[in-house]
Structure formats: structure tokens, C-alpha cells
Amino acid sequence: MSQLLHIDFSLRHEESVSRQLTARYANRWKAAHPDGTVVYRDYGSEPVPHLSPAGAEVKFVPPADHTPAQAAAYAIGTGLNADVAAADTVVLGVPLYNYGPPSAIKAWIDNLVIGGVSHDPATQESLLGDTELVVLAVKGGAYGEGTPREGWDHFEPWFSHVTSTIGLTPHYIRSEMTLAHTVPALFEFQDIANASRTEAEAEIDALWTPEPVA
Questions:
Q1: DSSP string spanning 145-164?
Q2: d(Cα 101, Cα 44) in Å, to the nearest integer?
Q3: Which of 11, 104, 183, 197 has the most CB atoms less than 10 A away?
């Protein structure tokens, strides 16, 4: 049976574009997998604890030698890994905050990456199975080639690098300029924001559009 792990990281709720897009993705996925299971985590509202000293230590201490604090931290990490390993697809809703990722996704990754659990530390081969990773990246501005703030998006480069160490490759679907609808100085870019949102929605929908029969 197929399983989707659906995770939101936005601090906002009804007005959150990333939450709206992950909901759209989950609905399309459920329609395509009527017998599948969706596991939902709202780490924007109930984040994973930030990495503790004990959590950092467990990466270098055999489980048999864990202190109680280390064992508790290890259980958090192995639980997160079990979520990912059980899923055929993981979809993340990630807004950009101050040109970087929400602290909640940093906490998730810091607890997730454990040598011998998430990956083989010698080969970097994933121990999480053949998991598809989809990231719905929502940005208040625009940071692509030729824009005034090209290169200011510090989420995607970091996330691509860190997930490569556990054998996962993110597929990014982007919706940009979302602040054009709320920040007066950006109102002139609302058409760009609408087009980017429409393109993201179309890209989500196309993931389950059957190819035409020749």
C-alpha cells in the first residue's frame, strides 16, 4: 500500500500558501492512490525539538551506551526516520523566512540525519528506501537568475546539500512573489505572483496527469 508523508512547516495557517499547495498535492495524491495512506505532521504548529546536546552526542555513541537523555533524543531521530522510510513520497511545505528556511525544518533535519539510521556514513547511501522527496517552496519575493536579489535564497542550496548526504534528491515546485498581495511596495508584481502560483498548481496537477495514448 502506498504512503504519503505530508509535512507543513509554515507558522501561518489559513492564509499560508505553502499549506494550500501541500493540501492540493495531498488531495491529488489521494485521488491517484485511493487505497493509500496519508501521514500528516504539522511541524509549523508542533515543531520537532531543536537539536539538544544529547541529540548531537547520539550520532557518535552506540545505542547500547546511551544515557537516558541520549536515548530519548535517539528515539526522536529514529521516529523521524521511520516516518520517512515508511513513505513512498514525502511532500514538504516550506516558506522562506528572512532568506532562509524556518527553524522547524532545520530542527527536523538535524534530528533526522543520523549515521547508520538515515544513511550509511561510509558511502552516503540512503537507508530510507527509494523515497521521493517533493518540496513546495513558497517565497515572498523572487530570487532567480536576473532578479535584484538573485542568490539570496539560502534555503534551496542548503537543503539540496544536506539531503544529498542521506541519499535523497528534492524535487522543487516553487511559488514566488507571494508578498505582492500584502506588501504595498510589491503590489505592481501581483501578476507575476499569480502566474507563479498558477504554474506551481499546474506542476502539482501534472504529476498525475496520464500521458496521452499514441
A1: TTSTTTT---HHHHHHHHHH
A2: 12
A3: 104
Nearest-angstrom CA–CA distance, 21 and 8: 10
Cell numbers found for residue 195 = 502566474
From residue 192, how far is each of 16, 44, 59, 187 by CA, in Å?
18, 27, 45, 10
Which residue in the block uniquely carries the three cell numbers 537507508? 127
What is 3-206's CATH number?
A: 3.40.50.360
* 40-67 confidence digits (pLDDT tens): 999 999 999 999 999 999 989 999 999 9
**What is the model's pTM?**
0.93
Nearest partner of 58 among 80, 42, 40, 36, judged by Cα = 80
The β-bridge relationship of strands 132-138 and 170-175 is parallel
- Rounded to 10 deg, the angle between the 68-86 and 103-112 helix axes is 100
The total of other beta-carbon atoms located within 10 Å of residue 34's CB is: 7
CA–CA dist 66, 84 (Å, integer)? 24
Is 39 within 8 Å of 4 (Cβ atoms)? yes
Helix (H, G, I), strand (E, B) or coil at 26: helix
On the CB side of 131, CA atoms within 13 Å amount to 30
Pick the closest to residue 29 from 109, 73, 77, 91 (CA basis).
91
| Residues β-bridged to residue 94 | 137
